[in-house]
Amino acid sequence: MGSAVRSVAPPVPVFPGGYGSYAGAAALTKTYSPLEVRAFYVSNGRHAIAMASVDSQAWFAAVQQGPWGISDARRDAAAQINAGHSGPTIAASDLVVQGTHSHSAPTVEGIWGPVPDRYLRLVHDQAVAALVAAARAAQPAHLQVGSISSRDIDDVTIADDTLAGWDIDGQISAIRATSPTTGATLATYVSIPAHPVTINGQERKVLGADYFAPLRTDLEQELGGTVVAGPATLGRQEPPVQTTDYTQLDFYARALTGLVLRALATAHPVTDPTVASSETMLEVPATNAAILGLAYAWQTPEPARTQAAQTATLFPADRSLQPPYLAGNTVGTPLTALRLGRTLLVSMPGEPYPEVVQAVREAVHGADLVIALSKGQDDLGYFMPAWTYGFGVAEGTDHPLFSVAPQMGDQVAVADGQLASAVGFDASPLPASLPAPRDFAAALQPGLQALAASAAGDAGPDGRYHPQLEAIYNAAVYNGSPNSGGVHWDFGDGTKATTGYLLTATGPQGRSFVDHGFLPGRHTIRVTARSAAGDTATWTTEVRVFPRLRAGIARRGSTLTARALGGDGHVLAATWTLDGKVIGRGTTISLAARDAERVRVEVVDGTGTHART
Question: What per-residue string of b and e applies to 467-506 under the rule 16 or more CB within 10 Å gives b?
Answer without folding.
Answer: bebbbbbbbbbeebeebeebbbbbbbeeeeeebbbbbbee
